[in-house]
Amino acid sequence: MLYKVSYVFLFFIVYSFLGWICEIIFVSIKEKRLVKTRGFLLGPVCPIYGFGGLIMFLYLSKYKNDPVLLFTSSIMLFAILEYFTSYAMEKMFKARWWDYSNHKFNLNGRITLNTLPLFGLLGLVVIYGLNPILNILLTKLSSNSVIIIAIVILVVFLIDNIISFSVILKFKNTVNKTKDNTAEINEYVKETLNKYLLSRRLINAFPNLKIIKYAKMKTKL
Predict the structure, then answer these.
(1) 103: alpha, beta or left, given left = phi > 0 and alpha = psi -120 to 50?
(2) CA 52 from centroid of its chain's CA atoms
(3) What ranges in the chain are assigned the alpha helix state H?
(4) Measured by CB atoms within 10 angstroms of the end CB, which terminus of the chain is less buried, N or C?
(5) Other beta carbons within 10 Å of 121
(6) Sequential pLDDT tens for the chain (221 residues)
């Protein structure tokens, strides 16, 4: 049982990391500069991609013999996941992490038709490419190795979440503006952590974080 949970968790972490890389590349191309941080966590992970990849792994693999159905199912999955993640995080942190209001065919600025085909392609890549590779790599490791690796990563991941959540919740009502605040919130976490000697080791691990404040949002669903 512990092995199975560890196995699934490592899939989640890998997808979160790969999603973080995709975000870095996409935003860097969009802004025509190298963007070195995305997401509100200090570590190089975007959990929304981890959950999306995990759901595809667990529930969409059965459609692997029908690429068209897999493509459309992946689009629907990520559209729902992205919309309600945006809504939930805005309500929780009083900040909007991404905003597609300036895109055509957007829904409340939370999702846009422009990115949905990419999510469909991502679903194909996950099911036909990443899943088999990850499965081969993990099955080459012993059960104990998989469990130990998962536990170590889980501890680091939980510490990252605790620090980031506590900082954001404490200072979430500081300012008020409307835009994509993903990078700003990440930088604000660094600014706050920099005030504490014990946290400087974390800052040294992520030296590219910029220091600016984050926003309070009041957007209706």
Answers:
(1) beta
(2) 9
(3) 2-31, 47-55, 67-93, 116-125, 131-139, 143-171, 182-193, 200-205
(4) N
(5) 12
(6) 899 999 999 999 999 999 899 888 887 887 788 877 666 677 889 898 999 999 888 889 899 999 999 999 999 999 999 999 888 888 877 767 778 888 888 998 899 998 899 889 989 999 999 999 999 999 999 999 999 999 999 999 999 888 877 776 665 555 444 455 566 666 666 666 565 533 443 343 333 333 334 444 334 44
pTM for the structure as a whole? 0.74
β partners of residue 112:
106
- How far apart are alpha carbons 119 and 77 in whole angstroms? 9
Cα–Cα distances in angstroms (integers) from residue 126 to residues 49, 50, 68, 187, in the given order:
11, 11, 14, 31
Residue 46 near residue 16 (C-beta atoms within 8 A) = yes
Per DSSP, the three-state class of 62 is helix
Q: Is 67 exposed, middle or buried (0-12, 13-18, 19+ CB in 10 A)?
A: middle
Residue boundaries of the structural domains of the chain = 2-205
Instruction: Give the amino acid at 184.
Output: E
DSSP 72-85: HHHHHHHHHHHHHH
Q: What are the tokens at 172?
A: 């979430």
Whose structure tokens read 């600016």?
212
Residue located via tokens 């595809």: 56
